[in-house]
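Provenance

Sequences were taken from public entries as deposited. Structures were produced by running a predictor on each sequence independently, with no templates supplied. The record for AraC family transcriptional regulator from Nocardioides immobilis is shown for reference.
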Amino acid sequence: MPYDVEFGAPGVHRGLPGTSLTFVLPLDEPLRVSWDGKADSLHSAWSSLSGLHPAPAAVHHDGSQRGVQLALTIAGARAILGLPAAALAGTLTDVDEAVVPRPLRELPGRLHDAATWPQRISVVDRTLASLVAHSDGTGPQVEVGHALARLTRGVRVTEVAEEVGYSRRRLSTLVRDECGVTPKEFQRVARFELARGLLGRVPLAEVAARCGYSDQAHLSREWSALAGCSPTTWLREEFPFVQDGGPGGDAGWDHD
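Predicted structure for AraC family transcriptional regulator:
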């Protein structure tokens, strides 16, 4: 999705964890990203690739941001990047550093050559469609895909393993090899992602109940652990930008 946001002053956003990989193509300046609280991890480039991460990232800006952001599913990572999501888990990198197809490495330059938003979106769409069309068709094992879908819905790991016919240990190995996180970590982030989509739309106690947290206090603890701030802080500082269609929206990196 395209983003074009004026914040009014330089600042830092929180990039929140999710079940998809984040691919950002900035327009006005290189995107500067680091792990929250770790200045020595700062990465700056004209593209940004982030794998699954159970911790917030810090996205630095000079008062405004424009570009295109994509949320790549686990299967989409293989089709677009030619890599399993596990290859990028916990990393902050870009298309020049990562071993990705040539059309993807050329995409930042082609995007900058486009003069209008329709042209930019068309460039991105054509590139991604071509990559998918020419991919080797390799995707996650059917059992892993089914397991991830069930884990996202909150089904217990033991039950999911039984459904797909694997031991819990075997399932954990397969999910970790595909995603770079364990089934429990994936499920934890999926629940957080669901809560993020409801926050600001229904009361916190209802968010907790709908998403499977034991109570509102449990929700708040998990939010602080994964987002680096409380739900009320995120609502106060970030929710208006999410509503306006700022970078990240309800998928991938949300910003605080």
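Residues 142-228 form a domain with the Arc Repressor Mutant, subunit A fold (CATH 1.10.10.60).
Confidence is low (pLDDT under 50) at residues 243-256.
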